[in-house]
Structures are given as structure tokens and as C-alpha cells.
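Lab notebook, bench 4. The sequencing result for the construct came back, and we need a structural model before the next group meeting so we can plan mutations. Quick request posted to the team channel:

Model the 3D structure of this chain.
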Amino acid sequence: MARLAPLDVAVLVLYGLVVVGIGVWANRRQRNTEDYFLGGRRMRWWAVGVSLIATSFSSVALIGATGFGFRKGLGWLQLQLGDLVGIGIALAVFLPFYARLGLTTAYEYLEARFGGVARGLASALFIAQTLFRAGVLVYGPALALSAVFDLDIRWSIVISGTAAVAYSAAGGITAVVWTDLIQLVVVVFGVVYCVLLVAGDVDGGLGRVLEFAGDHDRLDAVSTALDTSTPFNLLGALVPYGTLALALFATGQQAVQRYMACGNVREARRAGFLAWAIGFVAVALTLFLGVSLFAWSELAPGGAALADAGDEALPLFIVHRLPAGIAGLLVAAIFAASMSSMDSAIHSMSTATLVDFVRRFRRVPLAPRAELRLARVLTALFGALATLLAVQAAQR
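Done. Here's the predicted structure in C-alpha cell form:
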């Protein structure tokens, strides 16, 4: 039996219809793969910026960051400094180069510089890595859905995977960007609402929450300790994590594809720095929600439901505390965080496959309409493969 009220189920269904509807709307605006992959290179920079950060803010990050805040506090936040280093270098050095060449994938340059083997290998490795990651992104929210609805996790995976595939395959990058925008708004609203609810439950309000968190060392955001075994210190955030961020923002297909969807370099840079700023706020709010839930578990009536919760803190709070309607919206937020990452993953794999392999090896180019149909088929295929991988993982 479902643990959510009928109103919650209605909210979830309505949310699913909205995002699929965006895919249908975006589908009507497409004439060729330039529109499908890059939005005709005329996407609004602020929408691209939101989409860029929503791509990396998965359900794993939403639930995991909340759990991290619950267990350890705000230490994750310093990794955003590494993101700033990575995205700053990417926008200053790599972006003008990509724009000048008019690339669609990040790997086209490799063929001109190092030969076709380098391009093919890099693109294939990207597709393989992204496919397995997409499977994890489906599996994460399915666990939450399975717990909330007492539903077999395999059905949970199929439901969440199908929703993301539906609008991604139909609407291309335009649908991905605009649904990412809506999904991030849903996530932020849900997190803020939970923080306010915690403050209302605890005697003494937010001030008492902060006092309790400070007494238990949950508010230290930056550590200067020289510990090479973890990135959760200033050195780890700036050097190893900053290097990883540079790779993601400078050479990752999902990021490069969004830069190229903007009208020019200036707008792409605005999008990149906006993405970092929104990401900083979103991560800070999510971590603080975890800290607040830790205080709620100790200070609020009914807080024992979260005792030693860890990464399950947010799903348990949704089930035990949120009112009808809002609980459904928070479950939708978990799916939103997942779908905003999965849609980008399967769409970028489709782009890389068509541009780096089909176009490159096909002797007779496809007609624009035929190529557009193939792009949609590839997007749906990669979505189905990611869903199957997640189902396989759930059976082990």
C-alpha cells in the first residue's frame, strides 16, 4: 500500500505530465539535428546556466548531500571552490577555442589534432562511462520511490527511466534545458520548505537549530587540515577536485554541448558562472537541510524516526513529517534531480554517437529529417539501456 496520500500521487502524476508536455512542445520546434542537439545555437544563456548545474545535481547529490550534512555538517561545501577553479579555466581557455571551431561534440577536435583513432576512442569511453552513470541515476530515486510506495524496485526503475526518456527523446536539448530549469526550481523549493518546517518544529526555531548544530561541529564549511586521504579540506577541494571539475567543465560533452547551445562566447560565459553560483546556493541549502534534520532528530517531537538515519534522512523525513501534497512534491524533487541528470546523459550519448560515429563513417550523409529521427531513436535507446542496467543492478 502507498504511504503517500492520494493528493501526493496526483502531484507526482501532474509533474510527470508537465515535463513530458515540454518534450512534446519542444518537438514541434525542431527541423534538423542542429535544433535537436544545440537548440539552433540560440538558447537563452540563463536557462543554459541553470541546466548546466542541474545536470550535475542528481538525486544522488540531493539525497547524498542531505545525508552528508546530517552526519558530518557543511564540509562538502568547500568543494564548490574547486568547481569555481575548474569552470573558470574552462570558460577562459577552452570555450573560445570550441566556439571558434563551431563544434558539436568535444571530441571533434581530437581528430584534427591527433587523428581519427583518438576521437573515436575518447567518444566511446565517454559513452560507456556516461551509460553506466545514467544507470546509477535511475537506480537512486527508484530506491526512494520503492520505499515510499512499497513498490517493487524494478517497477520503480522502469517508471522513473521511462519518464526521463519520454521528454528527452521527443524534445532534444530544448526540452532538456527547460525541464532542467523547472526541476531545479522544484528541488530548491522542496529543500527550503523542509528547512522552514524543521525550524517550526524545534522549540526555539532556526536559532536553536543553529546553536545545536554548532555545538555538534556541523557548521564548519572549510577545513585547512592537510589531509591527502580526503577532498574535504581546502587543499583537496582546490587541487584534486579542482582538476576533476576542470575535466568535467572543459572537456565533458554535457557541458560543451550547453556552451555551444548559447548564441556566443559572452553568453556561454554568463551561463557558466551562473551555473556555479546557483550550484553553490543549491549545495549549501541541501547540506544545511541535512544539518537541520540532524537537529530535528534530536530536538523535535517525533525526531526519533530519523535516529542514525544517514543517507535515508530525507526520504524518512518525507514519509514521517510532510503534509499531503508537499510530500508528493518532495518525492517529485527527488525524481527531478535524477531526471535532470539522466536526460542530459542520454542526450549527450546520442549526440556523440551520431556526430562522432554515424556522420564520420557513413559515406552518404543522411537527409536532415532522417538524421533527426535517428537522433531520437538513439536517445530512446540509450535511455532504455540505462534503465536495463539499473534493473540488473537491483537484482543483485
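Residues 153-201 form the longest helix (49 residues).
Will bring this to the meeting.
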